[in-house]
TrEMBL record:
Residue ranges of domain Glycoside hydrolase family 29 N-terminal in the record: 28-332
EC number in record: 3.2.1.51
Domain of life, per lineage: Bacteria
The protein's name: alpha-L-fucosidase
SMART domains (UniProt xref): Alpha_L_fucos (SM00812)
Keywords: Glycosidase, Hydrolase, Signal
Amino acid sequence: MVKKLFLSLFSLVFFNLYSQNDLTNDRLDWFKDAKLGIFIHWGYYGVNGITESWSMYHKRISHTDYLKQGEQFTASNYNPEQWLDLFDRIGAKYVVLTTKHHDGVALWDTKYSSLNTVKHAAAKKDLLVPFVNAVRNKGMKLGFYYSLCDWSHPDYSPVTFERIKNVKKFYPQKEQKNSSPWERFVTFNFNQLEELSAYKPDLYWFDGDWEHKAEEWKSAEIKKSLLKWNPKVIVNSRLNEYGDYKTPEQGVPIVRPEGAWEFCMTMNDNWGYFPSDTNYKPIAQIIRTFVEVISTGGNLLLNIGPKPDGTIAKEQVERLEALGQWIQTHKEAVYNTEAGLPYGHFYGPTMLSKDHKKLYLCLFDAPKNYIQLKGIQTKVKSIKVLGSDENLTFERNGGAAWNNIPGILRISVPSEKSLNPYVTILEVELEKELVLYRGHGNAVELNM
């Protein structure tokens, strides 16, 4: 009887764990195929062109002067349909908007704080509703950035700067008997997240979790509530240990993160609009970074920082459009592909079609003499340059096929006119599904 009870309990736990993992994978399906997302940091900080909320943290501006920027945050030329036309045209599949940064300023008409763009900005309007409508009209996935910390909230601690007097006037909270300041703040967070849940976002991009432990934030309860409000929603890794995917930033990982992941990156050195920051990454670097990321199974979440009036700086538009043109030319290698070959088969990034019958080789530089591909046991049908359709010749060299050692595939160099100025892609079409030689090498005991 005890044995049967144990087996029943084990089966129940195993089934629940399996089901949860299965559901997580289902929720992440679209994300794993997305390849490109657009991160949008838009807030008061663009008025003075300063570091977003961190400028207060580092005491480079007072809390009073920081909030005064709202007087010039007009959104007078805000046209989310134009934004989404651009994002859709370049091939992005999801967008993530900063609904509220650490400064506590909300882009929607939240009833839990008057620090929002309706009541405390020259814009005097809800900026989230038209954005959500524009995203849905394009059929793209909707992501909300939300800071767990709110450095303007009277019940939030710690903060490194002196807040303005009577900060409570911004937060019309109901009295909660026998509640501590922190408990009141946690309730505030849940209330704002419930407001945002009405828009049915596909993704939550949390930030600031490092300031408190998971038990303090009630991260487990947050995740449970988000899934209750929308069973298909996914969450980034900054909800302590309760995230669904990893999101390293600014430095491309040398070792691929385990599981689903994205890499978020600025175009210059700042997230928000920062007109004095002219250190923009070259187009070639952005495209190469995109290729590196998708070749190892991740997405690129590329950031823009719109101006206070809602327009996007020309330097940012130029880079988005260049990336989009490259993607359009090489879309076969971008969409419906997965991470490519393990290290050692080809000296450069690679992608593999989902049916494993096409291999995409990425050339960052103009090759010399010939291009080398190693350890491919499957017979190659053809090789061409994407964008020009130039067919390349190839031949196997070395190895011992009768002893299961494939040698190398020597591919001819594309003509100069076929080389892309940023990244050239070769499509290797196979006769069957890819089979790799992963041996350590051995003596050929029988020569043919």
